[in-house]
Amino acid sequence: LWNAALGDLQLQMAPSTFDTWMKGTQLLDVSDDGTFVIGAPTIYAVEWLQNRLAPLIAQTLERHVGKPVSLTFTLLKQSDTPPPESTEDFFTMPAPQPSVHPNGSKSPEQEEVLGDPLQPRYTFSTFIVGASNRLAHAAALAVAERPAQAYNPLFIYGGVGLGKTHLLHAIGHETRKKGLRTVYITSERFTNELIADIRTQNTEAFRQRYRNVDVLLIDDIQFIAGKESTQEEFFHTFNTLHAANKQIVLSSDRPPRAIVLLEERLRSRFEGGLVCDIAPPDLETRIAILQAKAETQPIRVPSQVIQLIAQRVQSNIRELEGALTRVVAYAQFGHQPLTVELTERVLRDILDRPTNIDLDMVIQETARHFGVSVEDLKGKSRRKEIALARQVAMYLAREETDAALAAIGAALGGRDHSTVLYGHEKIAKAIEADDQLRREVLTIRERLYNKS
Ligand code: ADP
Ligand code: MG
């Protein structure tokens, strides 16, 4: 039924709308009273469906079931979601591509089945270099240029979403261009294949497969921890490749030393080449990454929007890119201009707002930032800088706390809710155009977040 409805909906929407918001949905339940529970893979999709597409979906379903329906949208749990449609990749990943061998049809049979495909986008040319990844990038480049001569193995570690997989694929693209047999594989898949071979008593085949490659790229090697037979087999594979002067590149979310349940002999092999880390990017690098990403977007992204995202999303490049993609999607499909205000709104949904910011903190930090007293903010003065600080406090209180308008007004010297609403709107508009004011508001918020 849901598939039929989806087919029908596809005909009624722009393809991009359908792909972005409908594709990952699932019908989870239909209750006796005609309530359809529809799961979507991200909270943004849930909101979008609720706010924009619900009437169309309801109409369509009603046609199919022949009676009135009501809709509930909910976030899909990881276990509801079919494996390839991970929520993270919902917006950012193109469909999986088959691996392409540079020699086209002449490629040996085994290369088609070995390992995982390389993402075409993950090349050195799309990798932005900054202080946080300079060493890892230089090492990867050296390995790609002179496999098995520069560093062997190369071990790259760092937190999630910082570019490890990107660098491994970039190396793979280059070595394939050189005609080297290159296998990229996640250690999870490596382990699964080995277990399957052990089950069918075919470990010899496994050995031959991986021992015939020129460049072996193993991603997320930390998953090998605690898996003894995999470690055993990998140890031998590693030694064979290394002795034959073949390049090995490993990535992990932590340094070899910090992988518990890793055999000592493997650990010392991992540390035998070059170990380097990727750190979270600094502000400048985040801006550069967003600028590059912005150029591939279907609509123009104002530089204030890039700055705002770069300031707010600090830890992880995947989230940084995801934030931009979502903001653009909201603007594009909602037919709204891509503004600072829209970005603020979307980011607020993406980033978990600290829950313990209260009115007093907002008032104190705002007063401090503008160099006025808390009494001034609560008082009657209409002096320009005090009035501005007061309105900024109203804006931040509304944005960053759960306080009702009336409560905000009361905390600011007994003003009524329409005054608060007006103050909020005035600042929301002003920061669109006024760079200086926007920076001030961001600075205060930064301090509130750091304090909470
Ligand atoms: P990891 O494997 O470390 O978890 P990924 O390599 O999957 O991270 O990177 C996450 C996303 O961020 C990818 O889309 C990748 O292209 C992008 N990315 C990471 N580092 C950079 C960079 N320095 N320049 C451009 N894009 C980057
Ligand atoms: Mg990765």
Automatic annotation (TrEMBL):
Compartments where located: Cytoplasm
| Species in which this protein is naturally found | Ardenticatena maritima
* Name of the molecule in the record: Chromosomal replication initiator protein DnaA
Asked if the record carries the keyword ATP-binding, the reply is: yes
UniProt-annotated stretches for the region Domain IV, binds dsDNA? 332-452
Q: Keyword Glycoprotein on this protein?
A: no
Domains: what does the record tell us? Domain I is involved in oligomerization and binding regulators, domain II is flexibile and of varying length in different bacteria, domain III forms the AAA+ region, while domain IV binds dsDNA.
Regarding protein family, the annotation reads: Belongs to the DnaA family.
* Entry-linked PANTHER family: CHROMOSOMAL REPLICATION INITIATOR PROTEIN DNAA
The record's annotation in PROSITE patterns points to: DNAA (PS01008)
> What biological-process GO terms show up in the record?
DNA replication initiation; regulation of DNA replication
Q: Which InterPro entries match?
A: AAA+_ATPase (IPR003593), Chromosome_initiator_DnaA (IPR001957), Chromosome_initiator_DnaA-like (IPR020591), Chromosome_initiator_DnaA_CS (IPR018312), DnaA_C (IPR013159), DnaA_dom (IPR013317), DnaA_N_dom (IPR024633), DnaA_N_sf (IPR038454)
Recorded hits in Pfam families, A to Z, give:
Bac_DnaA, Bac_DnaA_C, DnaA_N
What is said about its interaction partners and assembly? Oligomerizes as a right-handed, spiral filament on DNA at oriC.
Residue ranges of the Chromosomal replication initiator DnaA C-terminal domain?
A: 358-427
Q: Where is this region: Disordered?
A: 77-113
Q: Where is this region: Domain I, interacts with DnaA modulators?
A: 1-81
Keywords on this record?
A: ATP-binding, Cytoplasm, DNA replication, DNA-binding, Lipid-binding, Nucleotide-binding
Q: What does this protein do?
A: Plays an essential role in the initiation and regulation of chromosomal replication. ATP-DnaA binds to the origin of replication (oriC) to initiate formation of the DNA replication initiation complex once per cell cycle. Binds the DnaA box (a 9 base pair repeat at the origin) and separates the double-stranded (ds)DNA. Forms a right-handed helical filament on oriC DNA; dsDNA binds to the exterior of the filament while single-stranded (ss)DNA is stabiized in the filament's interior.
Residue positions binding ATP: G161, G163, K164, T165
According to the entry, every stretch annotated as the AAA+ ATPase domain falls at 150-276
